[in-house]
Amino acid sequence: QTSSVTVIAPAQPPAGTSWPYAAPASAATESPVAYYVNDGGTSVSSSVYVGSADGYLRALKKDGTLKWAYATSPLSAVRSSPNAVVEGGSVYLYFANDNGDVYKLRDDETSGALVWKQSIGARVRSGVMCSDMECTGSVIYLGAADKTVRCLNKSDGLACSGWTFASAVTAEVSGVLAIDSRDSVKTAWVGLADGKVVALQTTDGASPTSFVSGGAIVSSPYLDARVADANNVIYFTSTDGKLYARVSSNLSAMPTGWTADYQTEGASPIRTSPMVTFGAVKYIFFGDDAGRLHKVDATGAAVAGWPVQAGGAIRSSPVWVPGAYVGLAADYIYFGCDDGYIYAVNADTGERRSGWPVATGGPVRADPVVDVADRTLTVGSTDGKTYSLNIGP
Fold first, then answer.
1. What strand order describes the sheet that includes 319-321?
2. Model-level pTM greater than 0.90?
3. DSSP letter, residue 203
4. Can you tell me the distance from the alpha carbon of 271 to that of 174, in angstroms, rounded to the nearest whole number?
């Protein structure tokens, strides 16, 4: 019995669209989508690119309808986030799959045209990264299950000349590399399944230093690269339940002000990447397997009133969206959860945003991707659907 009625109005897809997109046979999506927004530089329409467990890479129109689907051969799950890049007036997609094949496709609007395919012989769960933010460099990087980090030429997919398979890479790589391509640094950092974080020189792959945590690292490190040198701060999480902060140049020294590594209650494993804010005051957000979203300050201490509880394990890395970017008064943190919901919580108070969480038909383990221009959040679910939700007013 109840004495009142509560009406819940869930957050909706963008008006006039067909979202969510449902893949055939409910093919699960477990990796972040990639965006291409047409700003007049190519003849390719704005698209969302989605890799799925059925072995297909799909291009979706901005209205949520299918543009084309490319089948890997042999069919193998795509759990590596695709990377959409503009080169010479065309849009290209770099991605890899569980069979160990790395692909470069061209978006021809009605189909995905194969440019090259190279097999590295080992499962790839690590997203393909460019050497610089604008992806104007000539190479890409990715990690593999055979205890290697690869450097491949964008032109043909062949191994970069002089690239070293560093002996410091001693376990499978599943997260993406954090890269600082500036001339004074030229270094990448990546986590390994044996608990290591390894620094690699982007010129030849040699490793100058590494750090060992107390559990497997299945997430991606976050490099707070505010100055052009190697003494920035790198944040990373581990399944030992800790959030770490280290000076990026040596991976052994704690940064100034960081008093101790943050430990989750009960040492609950952390499988999400940390999200670091870039306002006047720095905070770090991440989720754990106990379903708690944590907010930690720059000293490594929990913020009062946090963590906040969700309804299942959090394995979808949170994304922080400043309210000013999307026409809101408050900043929000968005993340998926194993309870099948997509959450939005106030980054200051931890309170849930009105109309959220939004239900899907299965655990949401992919990281959400935000387009602030369209004021949308897009994320795939294990129910085989890709959701695009309005995050504006």
1. 319-321, 332-336, 341-346, 358-359
2. yes
3. T
4. 11
DSSP state of 268: -
Whether the ω angle into residue 357 lies within 30 degrees of 0, i.e. cis, is yes
Distance CA 360, CA 384 (A): 10
Alpha-carbon distance 238 to 336, whole Å?
19
State the sign of the Cα–Cα–Cα–Cα dihedral 185, 126, 273, 391: positive
pLDDT digits (tens, 9 = 90+) for 335-358: 999 999 999 999 999 999 999 999
Report in angstroms the alpha-carbon separations of 295 from 157, 195, 302, 387.
40, 23, 6, 26
Tally the residues of the chain. 393
Beta-bridge partner residues of 116: 104
DSSP 303: P
SS3 assignment, position 24: helix
Residues 389 and 391: their CA atoms lie apart, in Å, by: 6
